[in-house]
Amino acid sequence: MKMSFPKPTIPLFAAALSGCCVLLLTAAVPVSAQNKTPEQEEPVQLSAFEVSATSPSPYQATEATSGSRIALPIFLTTQAVDVVTSQLIQDLGADHMLDAAQYASPGINNGSQSVGADRVTIRGFQSDLHVSDGFINTNLNKGFPQINESFEIVKGPSAVLSPFAPQPGGTINWVTKKPTFSGNFGSISAEGGEWDSNFGSIDINRVVSSGLAARIVLAGVDGNAYTGEPRRGFIAMPEIIWRRGSAELLLQAQIYQYKTTVNSGVPLDYTIGTDSNVSAKNMIVPGVPWATYTSDADDVRTDMQHNYLAVFTDKLTNALSVRVAGHVSLGTEFFRQFNTTGVAGAPSTGAMTNPLTGAYTPGFTYGGASTGFAATAVPIPTETGAVWTRSASSFVGIYTQYDFQNDWNYEFSTDYMKSNTTAGVAITWYPYAGNRQGALPGNGGTKPNFDPANQVGVTNTPAAPGTPMAGLNQVGQEIDQYYISENLKFFKDRVVLSGSLSENTMKKTLASLNLPIPSPNPLQPNPASVDVNKLLKGYGIVVSPVPYVAVYYGHSETSLPTVTVNAPTSTALATGFGFSSTQDSKQDEAGLRLKTLDGRSTATVDYFQAYQNNNSVPNPANLALAPGQAPLPPLFADVVSRGWEFEFNTAITPQFSILGDYANFKISNTFGQPIRAVAQTSGAVYANYHFTSGDLKGFQAGVGVIHVGRRAVDAPTSGSTAAGTPTNLITFQPTAWFPAYTVVNLSSSYQLNAKWKVSAYVDNLFNEYYFTGALNRFNTFAGALRGYRGAVSYSF
Predict the structure, then answer these.
(1) What percent of the chain has pLDDT over 70?
(2) How many CA atoms lie within 13 A of 30 on its CB side?
(3) Least packed by Cβ within 10 Å: which of 54, 69, 452, 658?
(4) What global pTM score does this model have?
């Protein structure tokens, strides 16, 4: 059955803004030939909500707004804050956010499903959010770093930023490029490569007058992923800034479309068990090529979004600044995918799990307690002849989101103290009638068995047609936040005290359109709803006895409404997986920062403990769904992550820079079980040299090394095995572990003249075999082997 879904159309605002930008850019061309700068005027005083552009080195930033809504010195913050600068993005040739972030901030790695969106894990917690300029943009596919000036990474939750920083691991804020009054400029860039490449972008900025600037950024991709699935998409971002005195008004639109196929990965060899110790290359099913294209022709993933942003800032007096911002996001997403579920007729992985250890031991099944859980040898299933069974499912999301923020900042100082007070309101609203998501009847179905010799072009056998939209959930949500924060500095910034309070009113309603309303089961109401209030707090202290040393401690919190329909509530409670109306996150963090070489070199070491209740856990029952059956909702568990991180960022000379990080932590659920696809140790280092004189003037080259520790392939079955007792729990283990890996990347570019620049990149220089992530042992994602990319850009 062929289904059609509503597509966002370009509203009048987007069309008007795009046309306005084109007209302004065109009209400003003659001006650029005569004068590269706006008319002379008094320097503009930045409001408290705008970051200063000064930086001691190419890969460092001294201020960020993402941790507190206002611009604060990173050296004196009570949370770990990292910035991926524009120069680092350019030098790396980073086509995806993670390509750059992993060098600048410790503990950031691929998420479980690395092939979709920009999923990452931060301190072990998976984050699916696209936060752009402080607002959430929902999409299922990867974004375009070409539209961004930088990435600001805030580690841990934040009461002040709630609900925009709900993840306890941290939040990555994409800071987009903005029109600038510094002059007229433009560039056209194109990149080509074997895979994960074929990007193009255009960036044009024009100063129309001393009070008006316009910019338009376009980016697109037309290439293939390493495993073969096509990636097609574009983003257009027209914007203007109006300025009068210290007042500024930004108007921005983002029109985004992306289409690819869904890579559901390849299964591991059945002989690979929990205690196996083999190389990544030898873990997949024999006879399956490393770069197997598992997607079928109809496994489509599409994403269409329009995002609109308006931000007004002003420095009303020397002490008082204001910010008013509005944001609208409209989107439609759809994908159809399959899941590989194992060899037909073979014992399940559960049957081959040793109750005495919780480990998966292929080739053995186990008796009950009366036999002492005796092991019985069984044949290991054959994996040839296309015997892997598969199920198909679909997902559609229709999103409408409105946001409003109003912030006020007041600065006050005496001879002994500086006070910085911020207060405001933030409202996020998802209208109940405008948000639907879930599986659609008739868009699931059956798949041919897994055949490594013939994967391309096989189509889905649709399930019986169902009532349109009947499989969807309808979601409505509103979060009203009122907050106040205080930052006090004493003894010439040697002691900094901070504190914040955030009162959040959270309402959420979720109804399954495939169930009776109201539900006859009081434990599973339909619709289900929550209406709660949360008072969140944050506090911390920084002590800087000398300008180049700072010791800090910070506590932060956040909360989100959580509600589910048709969840196995009683079963979840009986197995120790609790469920409440909110997902709460808390973190305590302490660290030491050092600064030398006139600020060109910084280093930080910190220890953290982050906690989250109601962390989503994949429901193992989804691995055995009947064709076309809607997936069951997740289970929920409490998760704790604790450990330490180290990072450094040094410009040894104006030409030579080196930065890197290392993370070592432990994350587990209520039962002490590891979290799927999370590396508890990881590190990266990048070194770059820019030649500024001699025959190589204009040439730069860099080398990056990324190390990721071993990771659990799948989420272990919750709780204890049958051999465990209340006083001696024997928890289930992952069925396998991905081995640790180390990848080396090279980057280089040469500035031919003032206009032309060429770049070359080698990814995975030594052809390391590794996995980027996994949903479970039957759906794993192979990392790309050695690849080459080249780029050329023209500036005008």
Answers:
(1) 81
(2) 2
(3) 54
(4) 0.89
